[in-house]
């Protein structure tokens, strides 16, 4: 269940004045009544949590069962760097609470030091229904598939995202939720008219008249595919064969290969070299399945060591920024949502929006 509807106070209106001017008081009130769950307070998770907190939510829940490692310290800006304090081994969600709170004290903040599977076992799957949006960040493939299915059943907006070293992706599923859509019927378009003085400024002479057509928008539900469907397109279909080279970016094969390695439990964890060999093998298969040539790919296997931790800060900033943008659109029922997979690669400096499976 989402929070009971309420409107922003005068004090909040002053805090959010700039963004109210940008997207309007109605959109801000919708954000004010939204509750978001962020699972995974990694460096990417911190970027998204920051962006969504500053938007002016009703409540934010940080959930993470992992402890802080050396990859987090100095990179995750939600973790305090107190002289003499050793953060290694502390829970990430609890450690991130103080700085997240200072970003926006108006947001009701909760930190849960557990993994999501533990919470679902304890509270039941319907527990996710209390949130307006659930974001899974840097989580395993199988968990993302499962939680996405739960959110679709409960009608909860969903984002899944990860950053693998220098490359990252975000997946959006706002299935059935409304966005403002431009009215195509010109009969419904409004117009405004204003009189202008002639060039000489002579008010006694006939003034020019300018009519400005104003776009009209109405709420309309949008439909999205599930995570598993979007990342498991059969590119051998006749209708897709000729499109493959045009619509599949090289960076897609990097992301898909890592997701597939997770799905098939192929990463050994026994050493980077073994995982690199697995990744290259899967990548070659995925490139072939996508009707591409491996020698034409912008990122070759000799750079695959850049696809492992630590996460590159600029990649987290780009992916986390777009996640925040689309989350705000979804919660405020705004305009022009992007569908449905964004992939950013700092290896070839590309950021591409893909709509998979192709329409």
UniProtKB/TrEMBL annotation:
Pathway the protein takes part in: Protein modification; protein sumoylation
InterPro entries per UniProt: ThiF/MoeB/HesA, ThiF_NAD_FAD-bd, Ubiquitin-activating_enz, UBQ/SUMO-activ_enz_E1-like
Subcellular location: Nucleus
One annotated GO molecular function: SUMO activating enzyme activity
Coiled coil (residue ranges): none
GO cellular component: cytoplasm; SUMO activating enzyme complex
Keyword Cell inner membrane attached: no
GO biological process: protein sumoylation
Recorded superkingdom: Eukaryota
Keyword Kinase tagged: no
Record's keyword terms, sorted: Nucleus, Ubl conjugation pathway
Domain (THIF-type NAD/FAD binding fold): residue spans on this chain: 16-348
Subunit structure: Heterodimer of SAE1 and UBA2/SAE2. The heterodimer corresponds to the two domains that are encoded on a single polypeptide chain in ubiquitin-activating enzyme E1. Interacts with UBE2I.
Protein family: Belongs to the ubiquitin-activating E1 family.
UniProt name for this protein: SUMO-activating enzyme subunit 1
């Amino acid at each position: 269940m989402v929070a009971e509807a309420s409107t922003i106070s005068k004090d909040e209106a002053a805090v959010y004045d700039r963004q109210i001017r940008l997207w309007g008081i109605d959109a801000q009130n919708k954000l004010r009544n939204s509750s978001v769950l962020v699972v995974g307070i990694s460096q990417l998770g911190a970027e998204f949590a920051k962006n969504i907190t500053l938007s002016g939510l009703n409540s934010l829940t940080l959930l993470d069962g992992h402890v802080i490692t050396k990859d987090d310290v100095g990179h995750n800006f939600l973790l305090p760097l107190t002289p003499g304090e050793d953060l290694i081994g502390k829970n990430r969600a609890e450690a991130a609470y103080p700085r997240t709170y200072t970003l926006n004290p108006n947001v009701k903040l909760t930190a849960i030091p557990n993994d999501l599977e533990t919470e679902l076992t304890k509270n039941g799957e319907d527990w996710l229904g209390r949130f307006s949006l659930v974001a899974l960040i840097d989580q395993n493939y199988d968990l993302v598939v499962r939680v996405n299915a739960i959110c679709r059943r409960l009608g909860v907006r969903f984002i899944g995202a990860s950053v693998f070293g220098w490359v990252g992706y975000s997946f959006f599923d706002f299935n059935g939720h409304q966005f403002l859509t431009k009215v195509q019927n010109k009969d419904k378009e409004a117009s405004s008219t204003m009189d202008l003085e002639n060039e000489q400024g002579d008010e006694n002479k006939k003034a020019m008249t300018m009519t400005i057509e104003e776009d009209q928008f109405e709420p309309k539900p949008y439909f999205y595919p599930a995570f598993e469907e979007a990342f498991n397109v059969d590119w051998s279909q006749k209708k897709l064969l000729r499109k493959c080279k045009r619509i599949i970016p090289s960076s897609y094969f990097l992301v898909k290969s890592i997701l597939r390695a997770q799905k098939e439990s192929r990463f050994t964890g026994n050493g980077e070299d073994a995982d690199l060999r697995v990744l290259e093998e899967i990548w070659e298969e995925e490139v072939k399945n996508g009707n591409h040539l491996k020698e034409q790919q912008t990122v070759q296997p000799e750079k695959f060591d850049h696809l492992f931790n630590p996460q590159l800060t600029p990649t987290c900033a780009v992916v986390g920024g777009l996640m925040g943008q689309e989350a705000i659109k979804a919660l405020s029922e705004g305009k022009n949502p992007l569908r449905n997979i964004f992939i950013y690669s700092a290896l070839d400096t590309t950021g591409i929006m893909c709509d998979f499976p192709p329409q």
